[in-house]
Amino acid sequence: MAKDIYGVNEWGDGLITVLENGHIGLCHPDNPAQAPTDLLSLIQNLQQRGIETPVLLRITDFLKSRIDEINQSFASAIAEYDYKGRYQGVFPIKVNQQAEVIERIAEYGRLYDFGFEVGSKAELLIALSLNLGERAAIICNGIKDTEFLQLAMMSMKLGFNIFIVLESPRELELVLDVVKDSDIRPQLGIRIKLTNTVSGKWAESSGDRSTFGLTIAQIMDVVERLRETGYLDCLKLQHSHLGSQIPSIIEIRKSAQEACQFFAELRREGVPLTYLDLGGGLGVDYTGEQSAAANSINYSLKEYCLNIIETVKDMMDSNGVEHPTIITESGRACVAQSSLLIFNVLEATHFDSEYEVVAEENDHPLLLKMLEIQTYLNRERIQECWNDLKYYREEIRALFRRNQVSLAMTARTERAYLYLMNRIKTVLLDPEAMTEDMHEALVQAADIYHCNFSLFQSLPDVWAIDQLHPLAPIQRLHEAPVRAAILSDITCDSDGKIDKFVLGEGISDTLPVHDLIEGEDYYLGVFFVGAYQETLGDLHNLFGDTNVVTVALSEDGGFDILKEQDGDTIYEVLSYVEYEPKQLIAAFKANVEKAVKGGRLSPSDRRQMLRSYTDSMNGYTYFEHAEH
Asked: What are phi and psi of 214, to 5 degrees?
């Protein structure tokens, strides 16, 4: 079953399924009885409207459900443990800064007083423009200058619940300088470095060597400075970042315990803290392994909330401290699942062939020996056949380099190699023939499927930090995939490839795929790309943002388009890198006119070339079908 091959049941989290027609289906998270939306039909419908792949789909139902689930899970945990404080979350804008995403988070989160974490003046400006709940918090993290501080403090007069988190003693002096001639009493927070270090890809964001926050000695210096200047009563919030994508619930509990002990000790020092911000850490199970691995987590959302509430309650009760309002900054867990990238395969490079090469009288002796391999090709001697095949091929190549065999003979040898690789793969369909060495051989002989997307623009974490995202064909899943491939993107860069995949049996070096059918688009989907991927992408080879479509799933298995954002045109991308497109057009016109005067082009050629140039300037940066 395709579900088993691609692990859809493991990582799909009830959002993704495989339909009877072999297509991927999108399930409504709050209405599981509702007919799933056929993803292939959705993409084909978009193309009929002129919206080409690659396309980023944002599913509003996935986003709303996740925000509901986080807040409701904390509410249930608070009720279960009779916790006397409240919970209110904030979304770190850096995780996905796109206006469509941020505005919907504000809309869906208003019921829960869901706020935002900002780390720059630009992000603060975004947060201040939103219609937030009355008690929604705006947490100001990061390095702040005077202008940032003035804007944040003045905005408190508008009713915003703003916390200025002190990242260093120097920042405190800036705050004091801003407020000295003001009637504003700021709400301050203090960021404390925890000594506990978590595991995972972002381990360095925790522990003593973390970039932001105050050491124990600096904490006491800041408290005393606030006391002597009369602003200690303004210190209301403690921020202790647990980490990012923490894979183990035990590590979350340990870090939360340490944060709580700091909180209690500061209360003993007379600091009137009422908010405990535990930062990020809530992870996403990208692989479905449910284990403490880099791209997975060994806990559920419900377990996370129960553990946070239980830990904070127990620690506060043991220290005789009132239960604070708990804030978490769960960015990845909010938005990762809500976006998916769909792209088409343009062509394939195969490293085997069904074309049989028959021995001929004039063949080189080494080629004849290579062709004899098929006479002893069986399961028991499969490794020997592979070794011989590699040896004869390399020998012929060496002779070619020394001018001892012709190009034609070398090409014939390469064809024989591809044919015999095909025969070897056939034998390896028997699982008992598959040794570890032969598995490595198959990886080396995997197809390359050339795909219409830029890894660096749309999936930068896959390239930069080996992030895994679930990836599968969105069609033909009722057919057994007969080939294994790695994926190459459309950029001219050897790093533009995906060669690690989430499958039902674990992480694989190749993706099971189907043969391409002439005249039929073959689409692949990369799932759960809503966190960071849109924000971190670059313009490698000047491939810009993809088309983006925001959709809501309808009850009849269809969908409604809520917003469409055209991908970057070449005109726009060139302007990003300091070109003036109008000047480029003028310069090209001059070159064309010179060719006309020189007799190399006719006037009609000139018109056609200028039209082609300007059409390209206004076109999509990705591969477009000829009819478009």
From this structure: -105, 145
